[in-house]
């Protein structure tokens, strides 16, 4: 089942970064692509550039999500919209915690709940979940983000079990640092320019287009090949490390 076997895709978080790059790539591959995000102007620009169908929606508006996704036949669902906030459970506020859980996890569960039955009925579908190395490794101090992404990892595995016997594929793409707009807010900087300086200047990191290429690679495999998990990081980035503190 390569691109030619699919007709439609829906990409969340499509107004920037990886989502926009995936929309662009999938449009080029000939799919009708539904692009979902909150910023209307960005979506309109993307639609003018790529021919995608824009949908202005906050993915944590579950009634809106049900209405939109419930009325579409989606062959390829890309759960990409995500939010990271720096802080641990002693510093994050109640809303910060809820916002990350609502977008990074709850909206993905709800999207799959709405879209999967149609895929099962048509015996055709591909779910691509964008997780993070935060879902696989310990680092920094952001337990909520790590917890949501770890849940996306397990969800990706579990959907595979649930749909065994159907031609439905599930791919988790697990990025390390990628140059997007994710660090523009909530990461101790006040502008995109500052974020660029702090997180990207002097580093060699993958671009959003590399993630789009990765998604396209997984979709383009024949129907009997499921690319389950791809970790993609800068060559000069490694997870790991051990901290041991002396008590005296
Ligand atoms: N960049 C990295 O280094 C990195 C590393 C590992 C994992 N990731 C993951 O990769 C995914 C894509 O992130 P990115 O780096 O491309 O980030 P980005 O450039 O900040 O883009 C995030 C996208 O999500 C959308 N979004 C945010 N809140 C939303 C909401 N409530 N409803 C609908 N859309 C919403 C944003 O659009 P609107 O603001 O217009 O809604 C935007 O299109 C995320 O799941 C992120 O956790 C990123």
From TrEMBL:
Gene Ontology molecular function, alphabetical: oxidoreductase activity, acting on the CH-OH group of donors, NAD or NADP as acceptor
Keywords: Oxidoreductase
Top-level taxonomic group: Bacteria
Keyword RNA-binding carried by entry: no
PANTHER family: ALCOHOL DEHYDROGENASE
Membership in a protein family: Belongs to the short-chain dehydrogenases/reductases (SDR) family.
Protein name listed in UniProt: NADP-dependent 3-hydroxy acid dehydrogenase YdfG
Organism listed in the record: Roseibium suaedae
